[in-house]
Structures are given as structure tokens and as C-alpha cells.
Amino acid sequence: MIHMEYYLVVSTVMMFAGIYGFFTRRNLLAILISVELILNSVDINFAVFNRFLFPGQLEGFFFALFAIGVSAAETAVAIAIIINIYRNIRNIQVKNMNELNG
Amino acid sequence: MDYSQFIYMRPELSLIAVIVLLFFFDLFVKGKARGYFQPLACLLMTVHVLVNVAPSRESFSLFGGMYQYVPMMSIVKTVLAIGAMVVMLQANNWLLRDDTRHKQGEFYVLLLSTLLGMNFMISAGNFLMFFIALELASVPMACLVAFDKYKHHSAEAGAKYILSALFSSGLMLYGISMLYGTVGTLYFDDMAARLSGTPLQVMALVFFFSGLGFKISLVPFHLWTADAYQGAPTTVTGYLSVVSKGAAAFTLMLILMKVFAPMVAEWQTVLFWLIIASITVANLFALRQQNLKRFLAFSSISQAGYVMLGAIGGNAMGMTSLVFYLLVYLAANLAAFGIINAIEQNSGKVDMDDYNGLYKTNPKLAFMMTLALFSLAGIPPFAGFFSKFFIFMAAFGEGFHVLVVIALLNTIISLYYYLRVVKAMYINSSDAPIATFRSDGYTRLSLALCMAGVLLLGIASSVYDGINLFAFGL
Fold it and tell me: Which of B16, B329, B400, B438 is 20 to 30 Å from the Cα of B135, by its Cα?
């Protein structure tokens, strides 16, 4: 039997790896992947809490399911916008996202 | 299953009906009849507002507590619907341009989808419902921000918006998962009964703040604001700055009061610093802006700080003053954005220097802009003065004296930068001022509505009293 803490360590590492990636990556798609790491770590959290702490109910599992669905929708929109940027400037590097500043 | 429950969801159902009707109109109507798109959309929104304007007296909760209703929510939903309608009026000029003409239907459907998300967000009684509604409000919003798809700055703003939205909702979900882990429920009512303020819950609260803090654009979460506001089409910017922000501010207050009531000391501390940071930092950045949309972005961040002053006390007067503040802010800010939009559509100019000598060529627009900015700055006798006064009173009454003094000092700074625009329009002279033009009927109607709000809301005390009837505190 694997204890709950091990799962939580994995999800926490994923979470902070995602945050680190979000701030350091220089490519829009890599940033998007980092954000996905954050969202997936949350799904693990919900499933683990539900399975180990409140096994009689399904609220956490449902939340994880909905979170997966919603984040897929968000990713679709994000990729559509990134493709749009690529069409405009043939590039998706963050350093080219500098038209708006001040 | 008792289908009569659905009757109670009147605001959402009528909004869905509007969305479906507009969708089918977009799908099946061809040729000349498409010219009626704008009037039809505005008419349907007017019907939607009229159907929902009178709040039901009693509170109820539906679907096992997933959907909750108190009369105050109905008032806020009506305010938001009026805001969306004004934005739709202002959008006409921009939507009829050649590169957006064929996308009219998408604009209305996306706009109303975000409004639907906000309505559900306000009425949510469970964190799952709240999360889905928040995403329904922010995903179509990203599409709206990136709506001018052949312009790089619009796409860039959209990318910045959606990535920040994803990031902050990820952090918020992490907080919610921790809350779930400690109390074992996601229902607001049950959670309020079981929260005890353990360190893990305090951490979860801080994570939770990031989700709504992003939508309200309070200071540590504000970095997307200026870029998204500048790059988005101007009508969308107006919508973002007023309707989206207002819904999130009201929801944050409701959740803090209903769910986090046992941790009131903790969230008051968090909110205290967020308010000080928002008002001060945004004011300092607003001083050096040249682009008017960017300037209003920073002004709206600082206004968000003032709005949250109504929430920090957690009392009934705070709730009344917050909703009243949102209403007044809606009138003033949408007037400012309407004027900027009209000028941008006619001459393509959005910089402060371009507004030099506007009074000579377009005196009416310059005068209305002045009234709107005076109301934003809080100069009597305009509505903004009264809303600021009430919100300061609410916070002062709960003992936040230092906070109110800091906010007051900041109004003086804000007066300086609002007056910079007025000075540009009236005093500075220009060799090439913006040419005289006559804006279209819809824009004039929207500006008339906003001006009525700016001039009358403060003086007609029945508005404040009417909102006050339904307010409740901790």
C-alpha cells in the first residue's frame, strides 16, 4: 500500500515545476505545457484526497474530471491564439511579444 | 425530478434564450436582413434586462445547493446585463468594419457566453460550479481579446490573457484542492461550517485569491491587465474593465463572506495589503502612461482596489456600497471607453497627445469625457463622489482607518492623472487636432445612457436605498 504522502509529493513537485516553467520558458507552447503540469497536479490532488481521506464519496473525482475537460477547452483556445500569432509574425518566441509595453 | 426548479434560474435561462436566438439569426439570415443584427441583439438584451429587473423577494437554493439565489445577486446580474448592453451599443461602429463584418454573430455569442458564465459564477453554491462558471467567463473572453485576428497586437494580448488566466486558475484550483483535502466537501455551506483556520487552510485561501484576484486584476495578479487592455479591441476593453471585473469583485466578496467567514481575520489581512498595493502601485504607473487605453487600464486597477474596500468590512453597508460603486463605475468607465472607441474608429488615434485641442473640434465629446473622468476621480456632484464616499464610510465604520487614509491620499494622485487628460483636451493646443466628426446613433445612445448614470445616480438617492434593501453582512 502506497501512502498518501508519496502521491502528494509527486503532485507538489509537478505543481512547482509547472510554476518554474511558466516563468522561465521562452516559447509560448512550452509555457502552455508548464501550465498543463500545474492543472494536472491539481487533478492528482483531488483524486488522492478523495481516495484516501473521503472514500465514501465522489466529489473529488468529479472535480478532477471536470477540471480535465475545462483545461482541454482552455488549451484549445490558447493554441488557436498561438497559431494566430504564428501566422502574423512566423514566430512564437516570447521575446517577440513586445509590441505592447510601457 | 422537479422541473419547476428551472423557473428560478430566470436570468440564466433568458440569457441562454438570447444566445440561441442570436446564434440561429447568425446561422440562417443572409443578405440585407443581416443589417438588423445589431438592433435585434440590443432589443433582445433590453428584453432580458426587463424580464429580470425586479428581484424575487425570497432566497432559495436549487439542485442540492449547487445554485444559490439571494435578491442581491439579481441586482448585480441586472447591472452586468446593462453593462453588456451598453458595450453592444458601442460595438456597432467597430463590428461593421470590413474585416469584422462577417464575425458579428460570433462577437455577440462570445460576449453573452461570458456574461452567462458571470451569472453562474455569482450564483454558484459549490466550488465545482464556481470553477466551471469562472472558466466559462474567461475562455470566451480570451477569444474576444484576440478578436481582431489580423492584427498582431490583438493576438499578443489574447495570448497574454489566456496564459495568465490558465496560470491563475491553476493556482486557484490548487488552493481549492487543499480546502477539499482538509474539509472533505466542496459545498459553500458545508465548507463554512467545517473550516477552522488551520495553516493549510490559510495557504489554500492565499492560493484561492489568485483566481479571482486575476479577474479583478488586484496588484500582484495585474501584470496581464495593461497589455490585454491595450491590445484588445476597445469595446472589448470596456467590457473587460467593467463587467468582467464587477462580476468577479462581487463574487469574491460573496465567497469571502459565506465560505471563509470562520477565517475573517486572515482574509481581512490579505485584502488589506492587496488593496493598498493595488491602489498605490496602479496610481504610480498610471502617471506615466501615454496610451489612453493603457492609462485607463491602470486607472481600473486602482478602481478595483477601491471596490474591494467595500468587501473588507464584511458588513451590509459594505455590500451596498460595493454594488453601488460598481454601478457608478460602469457608467463612468463605459462612457470613457465609448468616447475613446468613437475617436479610434474615426481617426485611429489613442494617444494622450492626439487629444490635444479636442475641445476645439469635438466639444461635446470632450465635455462628456471630462464628466466621465471627474466621476472616476470622485469630484462632487458627480456619481463617483458619492460612491467613493459610501465605500470609505463602510470601511471606516469597521475600523480600517489607516486603509481609508491611504485610499484618500491616493484619490489626490488619481485626480492629477485624470486631469492630465482634461488638460490635453482643453488647454493644450495642437497643429493637427482630431477632425470634427459625428458618431453613429448607437454610440450616442450609449453615451447618453452613461451620462445619465454619471449625473443622476449620485443625486437620486433611491438607487442607493433600493440596493440597500437587499444587502446582508457576515
Answer: B329
In a domain, B473, yes or no: no
Cis peptide before B381 (omega within 30 of 0): yes
Interior/surface letters A27-40, b for 16+ CB within 10 angstroms, e for the rest = ebeebbebbbbbbb
Identify the pLDDT of residue B163. 93
Domain count, chain B: 1
Which residue ranges make up each domain of chain A?
4-96
A95 has a chain B CB within 8 A of its CB: no
Q: Which of A39, A41, A74, A75 to mutate to test the interface with B (most CBs of B within 10 A)?
A: A74
Query: What confidence score (pLDDT) does residue B254 get?
Result: 93
- On chain A, the residues whose CB falls within 8 A of the CB of B133 are none
Q: Which residue segment(s) compose the domain that B458 sits in?
A: 3-468
Contact B327, B400 (CB under 8 A): no
A positions 25-64 inside 8 Å of B (CB): 28, 31-32, 35, 38-39, 41-42, 45-46, 49-50, 53-54, 57, 59-60, 62-63
B199-216 and B152-183 helices cross at what angle (nearest 10)?
160
* Residue A102 confidence (pLDDT): 60
Q: Is residue B196 part of a domain?
A: yes
What does the alpha-carbon distance between residue B297 and residue B230 come to, in Å, rounded to a whole number?
8
Paired with B68 in beta bridges are B61
Backbone phi, then psi, for A27, in 5-degree steps? -125, 135
* Binary contact (A100, B226; C-beta < 8 A): yes
Ranges of chain B with pLDDT below 70: 1
| CATH code, residues A4-96 | 1.10.287.3510
> Does the pLDDT value for residue A77 go beyond 70?
yes
